[in-house]
Design a protein that fits this description.
- Residues 175-335 form the DUF4143 domain.
- InterPro entries: AAA_14, DUF4143, P-loop_NTPase.
- Pfam families: AAA_14, DUF4143.
- The chain has three domains: 6-124, Rossmann fold (3-Layer(aba) Sandwich); 132-295, Orthogonal Bundle (Arc Repressor Mutant, subunit A); 304-386, no CATH class.
- It has 388 residues and is α/β, with parallel strands linked by helices.
- Helix 3 (49-57) packs across helix 4, helix 5 crosses helix 6 and helix 10 packs across helix 14.
- The protein is built from 17 helices and 13 strands.
- It has helices at 6-13, 30-37, 49-57, 59-65, 81-92, 105-115, 130-134, 143-149, 153-157, 162-179, 187-198, 207-214, 218-230, 259-265, 271-276, 280-297, 344-353, and strands at residues 19-23, 42-45, 70-73, 98-102, 120-124, 234-237, 253-256, 304-309, 315-322, 325-332, 360-363, 370-371, 376-378.
Length: 388
């Protein structure tokens, strides 16, 4: 098994909380991680039809069989377990009793918030970060290769072509998460919606335009975006909320949790096609956002990540807030050549937010990091500098 950075935080939390919950997209490596981290725990998959039927029929007896040191995989499939689990936990109050994993964030967290609040530590495991892959034999050959392949473990470890992996992944996702469990009946329309979302990666999201292009109504778009978010396919990045005397837009930006999936939906079939694609800059920006998120989540944290765009269309790609104020202001340029003009918006807007030059960054497509009088220039592998 390739090392996951999250494993250290996972092990430490099991000494403090009776329940640890790990959510993330399908095939992000959750089951592999927890089974490797806890070899002495019993493993129960509620994907198994027979096991799920037993748990649903008699939750109390089911938990009595596995009342301590057990991994319950895809546990959101049997939400009846949570209220009974609360009683077991409160009787013993022992740390590390249950390790729960699941691929549907909304359903799992809804059940947890109702029954296990205060008793559970919640972690997220996304596909491999660039940092995790770079320390293995599966290091991407270049940035276009990383954007094209993405970070899904099986694809990288087994050397599967993205052209084979992602169509099957999407088909499985649509069938199991969308149609069977989340209630979407218009499968063909949802597929179109998913593809059109990929064309909007890194853009400010116009809900009405997306609805018109998909031939569905605005409420359906909002519902389907929530489905993408709850199943860790895509997420919306919110604009910064403090205006500093500027009129800011209120719409969010759309990103995918994996650039390989987004590239496949865009019809990109090779690293060479991606390198020449009109979407390369958007996908690179997407990768920066997700890499920052992954590095925070590997430490059990959630970054306060935003973007800035005002009514004059002045924009900063990313702002990381800490202590109620902006800590870092970040511009992203996919070019491997640094140009001082990349700092223009940062020099214009960052002083308004109180962000000094030491905390202004341009993330570019080159291989070196270096300081300038405008701020710091970072290569992609140095994004850990933002984790604070």
């Amino acid at each position: 098994m390739l090392h996951r950075t999250l494993s250290g935080k996972l092990l430490s939390l099991t000494k403090q909380f009776p329940v640890i919950s790990i959510t993330g997209p399908r095939q992000s490596g959750k089951s592999t991680l927890v089974r490797d981290a806890f070899p002495d725990y019993r493993y129960v998959s509620l994907e198994d039809t027979d096991m799920r039927a037993v748990a649903q029929d008699d939750p109390r007896s089911f938990l009595a069989r596995f009342d301590n040191k057990v991994i319950l995989d895809e546990v959101q499939r049997v939400p009846e377990l949570f209220s009974y689990m609360q009683g077991v936990i409160d009787n013993t109050n022992a740390p590390g009793q249950y390790i729960l994993s699941g691929s549907q964030n909304f359903l799992l967290l809804k059940s947890i918030s109702q029954s296990l609040a205060g008793r559970v530590a919640i972690l997220h495991l996304l596909p491999f970060s660039y940092d995790e892959l770079a320390s293995t034999d599966h290091e991407p050959t270049n940035m276009s290769d990383f954007l094209f392949r993405g970070g899904y473990p099986r694809l990288n470890v087994m050397g599967i072509s993205p052209n084979d992996f992602f169509p099957n992944y999407i088909s499985t996702y649509i069938d199991r998460d969308v149609r069977a469990e989340l209630g979407v009946r218009k499968v063909a329309e949802f597929n179109t919606f998913l593809t059109l979302c990929a064309t909007r990666v890194g853009e400010v999201l116009n809900i009405e335009s997306l609805a018109n292009d998909c031939n569905i109504n605005v409420d359906t778009v909002r519902s389907w975006l929530s489905i993408l978010e709850s199943s860790f396919i895509a997420f919306r990045l919110h604009p910064y909320h403090k205006n500093f005397g500027k009129r800011l837009i209120k719409a969010s930006k759309l990103y995918f949790y994996d650039t390989g999936l987004a590239a496949n939906l865009l019809g990109i079939e090779s690293t060479e096609q991606l390198a020449a694609s009109q979407y390369r800059g958007n996908l690179y920006e997407n990768a920066v956002a997700v890499e920052i998120i992954k590095r925070y989540q590997a430490l059990g944290k959630e970054p306060k990540l935003f973007f800035w765009r005002d009514s004059n269309k002045k924009e900063i790609d990313f702002i990381i807030e800490k202590g109620g104020k902006p800590l870092y202001a970040i511009e992203v340029k996919s070019s491997a050549t640094y140009r001082p003009s990349a700092f223009e918006n940062l020099e214009d807007l960052a002083p308004i937010m109180g962000v000094d030059a030491d905390h202004r960054f341009v993330v570019y497509g080159g291989d070196e990091s270096f300081p300038t009088r405008h701020g710091r220039v970072l290569d992609f592998s140095s994004l850990g500098d933002f984790v604070a």
